[in-house]
Design brief:
about 475 residues, 18 helices, TIM Barrel, alpha/beta, Rossmann fold, about 40% helix, 7-stranded mixed β-sheet, 3 domains
């Protein structure tokens, strides 16, 4: 079967493969790693696949239509997000119209997984199925021609009724999956100001055992069990990626949390394997701020770890409890001190608008961020995505002010607060995000430290670029 994978554009700079769907202030564009793994799985079954990353390359609707007509697929898989869902479904409609219905249209992604029924109704007959949650083997079943009634993990319409088949069990042995089909992409189409570009993402495990009420992927897509690949399999992929893209400058381990204490022996094996195999590449990872073992941090540094992207979320312990973060501000602070001692940079992620948030807790978070020995930060209004505990709580209490899915982003399609509390208005949340960024980045001491601490030519260039982007952001306000 000929299968077209489509990640449609929703305007230049809009990222559809990150955990939060929007244009970032720095126009970051994340790799389609989960999609690329699904493509590789279908190609292993001898299906002819083509991938259009319209989001990364800003490919227009007209251009996409031309590629579609030239390829004439038997099946189209469309990646959809909350703000872009109506736009995404116009591509499904186009596919059906161009081939007079003789094509199977399937939608994937967190939004469609959480809102399968709404998605099918919105499609108005142009969508055959939603592949819910982890979709690698679900898509393979559809492409193999199996009857929908026999396929787990899909939602579809039959005789005017919407049918939801039982959830498919998660893949336990991730070593069974092939490496992503990266030959369909150009690494230069993807960018992050915090990374050494061109970089590539690598997922060593799926799911997260954290219970954070707002976190989308564990609750909607990949579950609260951390299913991980063997160290040998991970090391093999690193070498494969470097060979495939000789100009690659960095790897980003995109697991929800790469450094879970419970699996620290595996992390050590990966680090030691990188050293033993003499793999020379810088890497970053998503980390939980709980490691208090300086020897482990130094091992990570020796193995090439340059930076950790860390979800601190708040500087108020009560708010952290409301988020079910399961960690204290004191432990977070100790983590950052040890990370600095080990020579690993920390990028801190904070949110405004958590359950119970007040002006007092917001100020506490802003001061906490500025007090930590970290290099960069991002502040965002906490977004309530369908399928999460936070979304359900906000909906039950009528805190969501967005009137439709498009309003999950602002008029520039940038992320914004969409909730309004009695104790903190939506407007106050958005203003607090700006104030937090100014408070962190415009401190004289911070500016001086960044000027004096560049570690390489890349760091100098990245800091200058980041300064320009932040300046543009400030001028827009």
């Amino acid at each position: 079967m000929k299968v077209l994978f489509l990640n449609p554009s929703y305007g230049r700079g809009f990222c559809k493969t990150a955990r939060w769907f929007a244009k970032s202030r720095t126009r970051e564009q994340r790799h389609p790693d989960y999609i690329s793994t699904a493509i590789a799985e279908l190609e292993r079954d001898k299906h002819a696949c083509k991938f259009i990353d319209g989001a990364a390359r800003d490919i227009s609707f007209a251009e996409t239509k031309k590629i579609f007509k030239d390829f004439k697929p038997d099946m189209v898989v469309i990646n959809a997000t909350t703000p872009s869902i109506d736009s995404d479904l116009t591509y499904a409609k186009m596919c059906k119209e161009e081939l007079s219905g003789r094509v199977i249209t399937v939608v994937i992604g967190a939004h469609a997984s959480a809102e399968a029924e709404d998605t099918i109704k919105r499609a108005k007959g142009c969508l055959d199925a939603v592949a819910r949650r982890e979709y690698d083997w679900t898509l393979k079943d559809i492409a193999s021609g199996n009857e929908f009634s026999s396929i787990q993990g899909i939602s579809y319409s039959e005789n005017g009724n919407i049918i939801h088949s039982p959830d498919r069990e998660f893949i336990q042995d991730l070593d069974k999956l092939p490496f992503p089909a990266w030959r369909h992409i150009n690494p230069n189409d993807y960018y992050s100001p915090a990374k050494r570009n061109p970089f590539l993402t690598l997922i060593t495990g799926r799911g997260c055992e954290g219970k954070c009420v707002f976190c989308l992927f564990p609750q909607v897509m990949y579950g609260n069990q951390y299913r991980y690949r063997s160290p040998e399999n991970v090391l093999d992929e690193i070498e494969y990626d470097i060979k495939l893209f000789p100009g690659l400058k960095e790897i980003m381990f995109e697991d929800d949390t790469f450094t879970l204490i419970k699996y620290i022996l595996r992390l050590e094996k990966i680090c030691k394997g990188i050293i033993d195999r003499n793999i020379k590449i810088s890497w970053c990872c998503n980390a939980r701020p709980e490691i208090l073992d300086i020897s482990l941090l130094k091992l990570m540094k020796k193995a090439g770890c340059r930076m950790m992207c860390v979800g601190f979320e708040s500087g108020d312990d009560i708010i952290l409890g409301n988020l079910k973060k399961g960690i204290s501000t004191s432990r977070m602070r100790s983590f950052t001190v040890l990370s600095r001692e080990a020579g690993i940079s920390v990028h801190g992620c904070f949110v405004i608008g958590s359950p119970g948030e007040t002006p007092v807790s917001v100020n506490r978070t802003i001061k906490f961020a500025a007090s930590l020995p970290i290099d960069t930060v991002q502040f965002s209004g906490l977004c309530a995505y369908p399928g999460t505990e936070f979304y359900n709580w906000c909906k039950e209490n009528s805190y969501i002010i967005a009137k439709n899915w498009k309003e999950w982003v602002d008029e520039r399609k940038e992320q914004r607060a969409i909730i309004d509390y009695p104790s903190l208005s939506c407007s106050a949340m958005n203003k607090a995000v700006d104030r937090a960024l100014y408070s962190f980045y415009l401190r004289p001491g911070y500016i001086f430290s960044q000027v004096m601490r560049p570690k390489s030519f890349h760091d100098i260039k990245a800091r200058l670029k980041g300064l320009l982007q932040f300046g543009r952001y400030c001028l827009r306000k």
